[in-house]
């Protein structure tokens, strides 16, 4: 990371000092800003606390979302179907951190929110330090598989941390909604789903036009029923909203989740399913073995067992996980199968240059395995047909079904 000396960076630091002064009633001096990156309209800085009459950590993190008048909503905002993605994203993130602050430390999913200003779209957070991201730690080998014991331990740790967060927040959507209202926001505490459902409904036409694969009516009907999980209320808990390899960090104190721009409440199984399909919004492939997937499910289930004992029934959980996996694979297809040169450029900049169709082929292969395992042979057959079509249109080495 490089030190920033630009006027804009120093302006953010001065704004953070004023927010801290308003929050704590004292003067805090922040120096030595470093650029930690950020995406889209966000600027993220690490600063040193050089003078403070109150006890603060030696370093803090400042995140400010720039105003984006006239700018289009970012990608995930478009996927979720919200208009001013930057404005809603900031409010959701601020409220998500406030909500997380109310949890016991061991259940808190990410850094602590120290102060914020809604009008300036500015957050001041505790600093987790220079810790590796999930992407840094979990790297598939030359066979495309992530098979080492250390990798498996990290995967189980992520699933366990998700389960711990879900168990601690189950049934607390009204608390989240109250915080939204305090922030003068009229948005729902639930993660938006209408546009995602519409994207799922468009996949059969996309498969037909791009790959020449027909989707039988019974499969379309089944997936429409599976899509109910996007708005399901049986197993709702807090979710960061957009899990990805670069916003999960692996530290000595445990797994932490960053970036809550689309935080809210949804069916907790969707979070677990999104990792099992290798983060559907990314061109990424974890190369999970069936054993690793099973270990992750077991680690997650152990944490939520007392809250949702129904999910101790293998048939109940397997069916719900199949619904989550199916919805994510179909959504990923809607997002990645059409040619999108801007998305590809962003993926390359993020260090994830995997061809979208290779990532999709892996996801459809995983869906085949999951459907076949529970005896849903029609869904498995359709998944295999899509995977074969993707393989034939991709120049990368062929994938084989087990």
From TrEMBL:
InterPro entries: Kinase-like_dom_sf. This is Kinase.
């Amino acid at each position: 990371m490089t030190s920033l000396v630009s006027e804009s960076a120093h302006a953010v630091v001065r704004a953070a000092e004023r927010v801290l002064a308003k929050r704590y009633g004292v003067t805090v001096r922040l120096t030595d800003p470093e650029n930690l990156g950020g995406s889209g309209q966000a600027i993220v800085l690490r600063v040193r606390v050089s003078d403070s009459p109150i006890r603060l950590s030696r370093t803090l993190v400042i995140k400010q979302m720039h105003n984006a008048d006239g700018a289009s909503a970012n990608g995930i905002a478009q996927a979720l179907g919200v208009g001013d993605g930057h404005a809603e994203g900031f409010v959701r993130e601020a409220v998500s951190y406030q909500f997380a602050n109310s949890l016991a430390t061991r259940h808190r999913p990410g850094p602590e929110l120290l102060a914020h200003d809604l009008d300036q779209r500015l957050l001041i957070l505790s600093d987790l330090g220079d810790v590796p991201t999930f992407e840094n730690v979990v790297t598939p080998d030359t066979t495309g598989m992530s098979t080492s014991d250390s990798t498996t331990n990290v995967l189980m740790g992520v699933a366990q941390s998700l389960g711990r967060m879900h168990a601690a927040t189950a049934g607390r959507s009204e608390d989240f909604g109250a915080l939204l209202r305090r922030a003068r926001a009229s948005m729902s505490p639930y993660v938006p789903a209408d546009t995602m459902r519409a994207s799922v409904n468009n996949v059969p036409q996309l498969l037909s036009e791009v790959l020449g694969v027909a989707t039988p009516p019974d499969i379309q009907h089944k997936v429409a029923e599976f899509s109910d999980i996007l708005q399901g209320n049986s197993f709702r808990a807090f979710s960061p909203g957009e899990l990805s390899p670069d916003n999960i960090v692996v530290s000595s104190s445990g797994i932490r989740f960053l970036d809550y721009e689309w935080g809210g409440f949804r069916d907790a199984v969707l979070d677990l399913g999104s990792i099992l399909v290798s983060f559907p919004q990314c061109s990424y492939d974890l190369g999970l073995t069936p054993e690793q997937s099973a270990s992750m499910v077991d680690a997650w289930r152990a944490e939520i067992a007392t809250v949702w004992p129904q999910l101790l029934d293998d048939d109940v959980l397997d069916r719900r996980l199949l619904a989550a996996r199916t919805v994510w694979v179909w959504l990923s297809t809607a997002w990645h199968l059409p040619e999108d040169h801007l998305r590809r450029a962003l993926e390359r900049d993020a260090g994830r240059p995997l061809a979208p169709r290779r990532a999709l082929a892996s996801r459809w292969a995983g869906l085949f395995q999951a459907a076949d395992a529970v005896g849903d042979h029609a869904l498995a057959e359709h998944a295999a047909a899509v995977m074969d079509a993707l393989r034939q249109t991709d120049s990368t080495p062929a994938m084989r079904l087990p």
